[in-house]
Amino acid sequence: MSLLELHDVSMIYGSVKALQGIDLTVEKGEWLALMGPSGSGKTTLMNIIGCMDKASTGSIVLDGVDFTDVTAGNLTMLRRDKIGLVFQQFHLIPYLTAVENLMVAQYYHSMPDEQEALLALERVGLKERARHLPSQLSGGEQQRVCIARALINYPMLILADEPTGNLDETNAKLVLEFFQQLHREGHTIIMVTHDPKVAELAERCIVLEHGRIANRKDRRIVCREEEVS
Amino acid sequence: MFWEMLKGALVRQSRKMFMVALTIALGVSLTTAMLNVMLDVGDKVNRELKAYGANITVIPRAASVLRDVYGIEASSGKTGQYLQEADVGKLKTIFWANNIVAFSPLLETKATVGSDDITVVGTWFNRQLELPTGEVVATGIKELKSWWTVEGNWINDADIKGAMVGSTLARKLNLRIGDSVEVALPGGVQRETLTVQGIFNSGGAEDDQIFVTLPFVQQGLNLPGKIGKIEVSAITTPENELARKAAHDPKSLSLKEWETWYCTAYVSSIAYQIEEAVGDSRAKPVRQVAESEGTILQKTQLLMLLITGLSLAGSALGISNLLMANIMERSREFGLLKALGATDRDVLLLTLTEIMTTGLFGGIAGYFLGLGFAQIIGHNVFGTAVAINAMVIPWVIISVILITLVGSLPAMRMLLSLRPAAVLHGR
């Protein structure tokens, strides 16, 4: 059974069709890259998969749970239990330290465990920076805290929205290496990116255009085409 | 974790939260001040309104008929009906004794000075009266007619040859302080010489009269221990339908109504109890004075309630604006919490705890600030301290909760409608 199945998903804002008839299946342990120009519907699709928005039509099944018609409260529970989110702009709580930012995710999931949070930071190479505020961390370090936070509750699916978009080359490389490691460990990753080189790291790449999936080619072909264009 | 988040949010936004606390403190301070003044203002305003003079007149029962039918004043001596001076102290034995702030017996007679007919009134000036309970109270016209402006001195009650002359009469007779005046009482053969101790201006009919000690008139008229009437100034509750019904006929009241009326300081209720205490008397409320006092008190209290309400509404508006700005500024933070799995209830709980904690500090500061304001109002308006009333505290707590919650409502609505997908992507 696939981890994620989307069937005929559409999202309409007033007269704007942000997504139209999206059919998509993601297997467990797969790394999928989502590409496309601005306004093509990548973020909208990520929000729907990440249980932060409800689709106007269509069905979505995550880990065997159909959340097409669930309430907002149940969507929150699904998101909390099954999804790990990594944002382009990091989004850390500014008045909490790195370890406390991880513990917030634990607190809303089950209960905070400082030792476990410290281990998660150690895993992303930030144990020494655990007591620093986000403002005392570099962009790369903040993004690694974000990744640690996304992983802290053992999610089934990691959604990363342009995780290297705000990073310099060195930090971007560090973060991508970490995603590769997660993939090797069997995590399922869906990553939005504009960068064909980043997409090339994924197993599969789909391109969205005007709210539709433009192609479903092998990642190398897609990425090469994107690179040429 | 909840407390770490709360602490972090409060410390990080200490300036903004200080503004919220200050807004709450200002609203609460006005509420505290107004409620304290309002609860104490009844006595204070009533004492100020003593300047309106007596609001109850006690006369002999039989004389009241003559006054009602023929217009003959009880204290003039023409009715031949008198009260006992010994009964005056009984006024302070009734249920509402503490509401009776001043009283004075009067015995009035016509007399001649030279060729002029004048009115001489015997009364108590500043009498230390021992009550049947053993308590001593100071009473007399010095207390009762506190608005009189007196040139010279008030008479000592032991000074039987002293007199206070009304300003109009003093001008007419060309009398000054220290002058002697010969007074012939009716039926009296010899003339009595009095010394002018003071000249007063009452702004009323008394300005044409001479006030002397009560024994002087009693001896002159050969009426020892007799008085014509008693003027009483009492603190009363504004009249309502029940009081008006009772004033018309107390017997028309049901038992429950009667109990309510009897145990409320209506002027009619106090008058009724005076009649019970002073034998063979009729206590008549001076309606204009009693009703004016009640109306002024009611209006003063209503004004204070309005100020309290408006200050609370103003605070709620201020808090509302500050919190809306705060939530807008922190929308990404709350969006993130929701994205991480916080329910609407979790986010509301965190935010409301932040606000209520701020409200607690603001409320405490406002309460003490308000006590200060109350004293400033007390000293500036009434020339005396305002009593601190513990009853205000629960009202202050309720108002803090109320203005904080009402002020938070728009921000809470905004918080509930906040969608993580929108705010985290800058929409």
TrEMBL record, chain A:
GO terms for cellular component: membrane protein complex; plasma membrane. Signal peptide: none annotated. It holds the Pfam family ABC_tran. Keywords: ATP-binding, Nucleotide-binding, Transport. GO terms for molecular function: ATP binding; ATP hydrolysis activity; transmembrane transporter activity. InterPro entries: AAA+_ATPase, ABC_transporter-like_ATP-bd, ABC_transporter-like_CS, ABC_transpr_LolD-like, MacB-like_ATP-bd, P-loop_NTPase. Residues 4-228 form the ABC transporter domain. This is Putative ABC transport system ATP-binding protein. It comes from Pelosinus propionicus DSM 13327.
TrEMBL record, chain B:
Keywords: Cell membrane, Membrane, Transmembrane, Transmembrane helix. Belongs to the ABC-4 integral membrane protein family. Signal peptide: none annotated. This is Putative ABC transport system permease protein. It is a multi-pass membrane protein. One of its GO terms (molecular function) is transmembrane transporter activity. GO terms for cellular component: plasma membrane. Residues 18-224 form the MacB-like periplasmic core domain. Residues 306-418 form the ABC3 transporter permease C-terminal domain. It is found in: Cell membrane. It comes from the Bacteria. The chain crosses the membrane at residues 302-327, 347-369, 381-409. It comes from Pelosinus propionicus DSM 13327.
